[in-house]
Amino acid sequence: MNRKYVCAQIQKIGIVPSVRVPSAEDARFAAETILQGGIPIAEIAMTVPGAVRVISGLVKNAPEMVVGAGSVMDAETARRCVDAGAQFLTTDGLIPEIVEYAVREDVVVFPGALTPTEVIAAWRAGSDFVKVVPCAAVGGENYIRALKTPLAQVPLIAAGGVNQQTASGYISAGATALGIGEALIPWEAVALRQSNRIRELARRFLNSVENARGENGTKVEEVVFNRAPVLALEEE
Question: What span, in angstroms and rounded, lies between the C-alpha atoms of 158 and 222?
Fold first, then answer.
């Protein structure tokens, strides 16, 4: 999968499931189940024991799935993940060395950012998307809407507290995609191997994204990555 295809899939699906579970076996189960539920994307957090091996196994056994690495903290870990087959890298904060590595290796990257200054810095550095995290703690969909007003050309992924009740609101506010963790992949459902429950949650989130885009009159192909530089935000 090349960079363009991975970006297109994230845009099309509109959901990046964050797999953050206690074991490698749990991670494999979660990723395979969300794939069955219609979401061919999985972000394996580096907090999962043996996360790099999980990535490698998924890339080999589920070639139709876009598999990425989450909560990456340094360039060396990023390199190990890419060597294992990771097709995108994401962080929980703006870590320039990881963005630089991804751009150099032509790998999709969306670093975490919160303030307008961080979002601008991440976009200027060459990020494909910018993950705004933790969204819910700083105003939720209203915060995304406020960011999109001056930074309309920056594709934002809303993450941190996104749930069934708020998912459509984030899309309506201008988010290109949603980063969703436990609300999509409940730990209890994983522990009890409740695949039907997770598949149903996947279906509901997919419907939320589709419906919100329909209400906005937004077509996936209309989401264009404009690499024009962001200069500054005017002070009010």
Answer: 19
